[in-house]
Amino acid sequence: MAVQISPSILSADFARLADEAAAVPNADWLHVDVMDYHFVPNLTLGLPVVESLRKATSLPLDCHLMIEDPDRWAPAYAEAGAGSVTIHAEAAKAPVRTLRQIRSLGARAALALNPGTAVEPYEGLFGEIDMLLLMTVEPGFGGQGFLDMVLPKIRTARSLVERHGGEIWIQVDGGITTETIERVAEAGADVFVAGSAVYGAGDPSAAVDALRAQAETVTG
Ligand SMILES: O=C(CO)[C@@H](O)[C@H](O)COP(=O)(O)O
Ligand SMILES: [Fe+2]
């Protein structure tokens, strides 16, 4: 699978989101972190901002829901035009129903796992998902250091995904930089979220190109 880069607007200027989206025309997705002060100790944005962003950019929105009740809210993000909606396994009480609803509303359905959550117990959900998000930091904040301890889980996830036909994308999120991206690409990730490495750079678009080039040294 071709390398995909998803810049996270968590590290962008929230007062200038349309401009910040326009600054990364070479990205594959725009990663939107939704946080509710409950599932994670931080608060960001919700549906009204996603609805406005949808109109402000042609990049597909990759909505990462770090919220306590994703079963209640996830379908609305798909209805708002998100290209992909990710729910956390640690928060969802009815993941099968919710993932099916996301798909039936035309979005890609994804399941996220925190660094300490094993992937094997969720193999049974692989038929319901288009993407698996493996967090490479504890969710809640941008700019944290990459957790090497997640690398074996990425390798395990890659072999499980291949056993299921290889169609599920493996996304990584947290601490992805030109220093760390090779390691995660080598372990089997194909969709790379990067916040501070893109929006903390002087030229966000050049940062996207640099990340992609670095990942492609592994994937070819
Ligand atoms: O979901 C999250 C954080 O919980 C991320 O999407 C962050 O936005 C990643 O930021 P960096 O680690 O790339 O700075
Ligand atoms: Fe995220």
UniProtKB/TrEMBL annotation:
Cofactor comment: Binds 1 divalent metal cation per subunit.
Enzyme nomenclature, EC number: 5.1.3.1
Active-site positions on this chain: D33 (proton acceptor), D173 (proton donor)
Keywords: Carbohydrate metabolism, Isomerase, Metal-binding
InterPro entries, per database record: Aldolase_TIM, Ribul_P_3_epim, Ribul_P_3_epim-like, RibuloseP-bd_barrel
Cofactor(s) in the UniProt record: Mn(2+); Fe(2+); a divalent metal cation; Co(2+)
Gene3D superfamilies named in the record: Aldolase class I
Enzyme superclass (EC): isomerase
Record Pfam families: Ribul_P_3_epim
Catalytic activity, as annotated: D-ribulose 5-phosphate = D-xylulose 5-phosphate
Family the UniProt entry places it in: Belongs to the ribulose-phosphate 3-epimerase family.
NCBIfam families on file: PRK05581.1-4 (NF004076), rpe (TIGR01163)
Protein name (Swiss-Prot/TrEMBL): Ribulose-phosphate 3-epimerase
The species this protein was found in: Nonomuraea roseoviolacea subsp. carminata
Encoding gene (name): rpe
